[in-house]
Amino acid sequence: MKGGDHVQIQIDPVSAAPIYQQIRDRVVEAVAAGDLTPGDQLASVRQLAVDFGINVATVAKAYDVLRNEGIIRTNHKSGSVIARGPGTAPADDAFVADWSARLATLLAEAVAQGLTDAAIIERSTAIVDDFSARRSTSDTAKDSPS
């Protein structure tokens, strides 16, 4: 998915989540894990569509969402690159408000499904810790000579 070191993402064609959303989610997860960092090149819309055997419009929609979220920027000459990630400027207030609302819904789903507060906190902490550990591993790999 990026030049040379291709970050592999997986999509599930039978998932209830739309494919464009899966692409968006996998890119965001790769950024959070440090697998994609600011300046990293993404595959072109056409190339990703060919790679997945899906419509170009589906990939374009995923990239549009990522661009609207400020995760990527696109230039007609250089294509799409990662624009934000851990260590970049803090998120703006509008993002935090929207994210908080979405988080509240996710947490409500967990509560409605019978998860305890402790289980929700434990799982949330494990996910954040995993992203942090993966970033540390990714940073170490990028710093070591090839």
TrEMBL record:
Offer one Pfam family short name for this entry.
GntR
Q: Which residues form the HTH gntR-type domain?
A: 17-85
Q: Which UniProt keywords apply?
A: DNA-binding, Transcription, Transcription regulation
Q: Does the keyword DNA-binding apply?
A: yes
Which one of the record's GO molecular function terms can you name? DNA-binding transcription factor activity
Note the superkingdom of the native organism.
Answer: Bacteria
Q: What is this protein called?
A: GntR family transcriptional regulator
Q: Which organism is it from?
A: Leifsonia tongyongensis
